[in-house]
Each structure stands twice: as structure tokens, then as C-alpha cells.
Amino acid sequence: MGQVSRRTTLEAPGLYFAWGDGDLRHASFALDGQGTSWVVERSQFDGMLATEAARRGVEIVREANVREIKRTDDGTWALMVGGSHEGLRMARFLIDASGSRSAITRRLGARFESDDQLYAIVGRARGKRIRQSTFVLEATPLGWWYAVNLAEGVVVVAFVTDRIEFAEHLSVSYADSFTRLVKDTVYVREMCSDRFLTVNCRSIPSRFATPAAGVGWALAGDAALCADPISSLGIGFALTSGAGAARVAEAEIKGFESLAESYDSQVRKTFERYSVDRGLRYATESRWPSAGFWVRRRLQSQGSTGEA
Ligand SMILES: Cc1cc2nc3c(=O)[nH]c(=O)nc-3n(C[C@H](O)[C@H](O)[C@H](O)COP(=O)(O)OP(=O)(O)OC[C@H]3O[C@@H](n4cnc5c(N)ncnc54)[C@H](O)[C@@H]3O)c2cc1C
């Protein structure tokens, strides 16, 4: 497999966290059995995977998006592709890895079971050029923050909060209110200047698709399961589910026994495990027993799963 460039990839040997009390503590990933973590520049990482797939014979179509899908009578997929390679393409098996927008999932007949919906406001500010990444996690009454250095001298700062807090505190101008809220943090603000180059907002559903595979199709990554980033599940699950979805495709194309059902059950089990772990993690922060964000996290961990 190709190498991710050292220029844009940094080792993150551990995590500083202010969670559960006001002190900043350090946890080493090596000591808790997880080994080293890496901070990767996403477009580079994706590029490396695409290059490796191409080397192994996969045809890569860049800067193209699937606009429409249709199934022909013999079960083949007809994909209307827009962008640089506009036109009709045919496929025997379809894997939807279109992320949390799940552009194609609903059209495949899958539905979502969801148990939470958070928002992340993500700012980028100038930081120092460094050799090792520092990752800081900080809980506050309105939600939690993280800040992480990227290799190119940029600090990414993210605030994860709930719909109600988001509406109350960030409705007027993301950039202004984000800058104001960063100042209320104790440790995250030490990592960045108060001038952000960009500030964006993303909704983060917590959900899984059911079923996650069927005849002629499978879902992978966020399209199959989307998680609260406190779980750090995202990229790891995207990689393992990508491999799982490929095995479902291989079995079907080669006429072996279908793996769709067992893949679907693995996705569901991953979500169940994630829900329990997430509840345990939030339960370790009890400083604000009546703050809305933390009350809702507590209720959710006791919780119900609803249709999205
Ligand atoms: C604030 C925040 C912090 C996070 N922190 C972490 C973390 O620390 N660690 C971690 O592991 N995960 C983290 N995650 C989660 C992680 O980002 C996702 O789980 C991961 O990106 C999922 O990968 P994916 O490839 O499934 O989807 P995406 O990364 O969303 O990629 C989907 C791709 O599909 C393309 N696409 C969409 N529609 C179409 C279409 N119609 N045709 C063609 N292409 C299409 C998109 O352009 C995109 O390139 C975080 C998420 C958020 C929001």
C-alpha cells in the first residue's frame, strides 16, 4: 500500500483532555492499547487509497458525481454521472459510500434508525508548524470542543453541540459567535489565535441504515453508519465497512452464498456497541447535571432508537 506523505501526516501519540474535572490530563494511546493515532490530511489520504486501487486495476473516475440511479430488468445498475465524465455508466453491483448525505441510500430502499443529532462548528486558524500533533479535548456546559494541529501550520478547532444550544448560541453569525465561545474555553483557546480563516457548520446524525446491503448493493462508511465524533469511529469504520461491502459484492458476483444479511447484522451490532460506549464516555462528565446538552446525553444513553 502507498505511503501517506509525512508532510501532511502527523503522529498524535496521545490526547490531552479536560473531561470530568477542570484539570488537563494526558492519555497515551500506546498505553491504552490503541497504538499510535495519526492526524491525516483527508484529501491526501483519499488520494493515496485511490492511487493504490488504480494500481490494482480499478478504474477511478475523478470529479464526477452520481446524479441518478436506475435498475434495468436484468438487475444491472444504470448510473447517470455528471461532472468531468458525464454520461451513462453500467454496474453489476453498487456500493454507496457517499457519506452522511447518503445521496443514494434512500433510493436503494434502506431507511435509517437514529438516536441522536448533533452539530459541529469547525474553525481553522493559523497555528505553529509542528512535528507532532497535539490533540486537546475539553468539555464545557454547552457541549465539547477539540483542537488539533495539522502539519501545515493550521489548527482545527471544533465545537460539538446540540440543536437547542446551536440555535441559541450560534444562530446570528457562525464566525462571530464561534470566536466568542472559544474564549470561554480554558485549554482549547490556548491552541489557536482568535482569528479564524474559515468557520463551517455540519450536522452529525447518529444513525445506521437498515438494511445495510441487499441484492446488488451495499452501503459503506457514513452512508451505512454515522457516529458522534466522541467515539472516534468514523474513518476506521469507513475502512472496515468498505472492505466488508466489497466482500458482499464479491460473493454476489461470484455466485457464492450471499453475505448481505451478515454484513447488515455487523453494521447493526457496531451501532449497538457504539451507543453503549458513547453513553459510558458521556457518563464520565457530570459537572453540569442540569445543563441541557449533558442532560440530553444522559437521557439518550438510557434511550430509545427512533426512525429518522
Ligand atoms: C466535526 C467532525 C469531527 C470528526 N472527527 C473524526 C475523528 O477524529 N476521527 C474519525 O475517525 N472520524 C471523525 N469524524 C467522522 C469522519 O469524518 C467520517 O466518519 C468519515 O469522513 C466518513 O467517511 P466516508 O468516506 O464514509 O464519507 P465522507 O468522508 O463524507 O466522503 C463521502 C464522499 O462521497 C462523495 N459523494 C457524495 N455524494 C456523491 C455522489 N452523488 N456521487 C459521487 N460522489 C459523491 C463526497 O463528495 C465525498 O467525497 C468526524 C466528523 C465530524 C463531522
Can you tell me about this structure?
The structure is a single chain. The chain is an alpha+beta fold and 308 residues long. It has two domains: 6-42 and 117-203, D-Amino Acid Oxidase, Chain A, domain 2; 92-114 and 206-299, 3-Layer(bba) Sandwich (FAD/NAD(P)-binding domain), CATH 3.50.50.60. 27% of the residues lie in helices and 33% in strands. It has six helices and 17 strands. Strands 2, 3, 9, 10, 11, 12, 13, 16 and 17 form a nine-stranded mixed β-sheet that branches. α5 (260-283) packs across α6 (292-301). The radius of gyration is 21 Å and the shape is globular. It binds flavin-adenine dinucleotide. The site of flavin-adenine dinucleotide has 21 residues, from β5, β9, β13 and α4.
Blueprint (SSEs and pairs):
Elements: E1 10-12, E2 14-18, E3 25-28, E4 37-39, H1 42-55, E5 64-71, E6 77-83, E7 87-91, E8 94-96, E9 111-126, E10 135-140, E11 143-150, E12 154-162, H2 163-169, H3 174-182, E13 196-210, E14 213-214, E15 217-219, E16 225-226, H4 234-253, H5 260-283, H6 292-301, E17 306-307
Parallel strand pairs: 2-10, 8-15
Antiparallel strand pairs: 1-4, 2-3, 5-6, 6-7, 9-12, 9-13, 9-17, 10-11, 11-12, 13-16, 14-15
The structure holds flavin-adenine dinucleotide.
Elements, N to C (H/E)? EEEEHEEEEEEEEHHEEEEHHHE
Q: Would you tell me the overall average pLDDT?
A: 87
Backbone structural class: alpha+beta
Biggest sheet, in brief? 9 strands, mixed
How many domains is the backbone divided into? 2
State the helical fraction.
Answer: 25-40%
* Low-confidence parts: 304-308
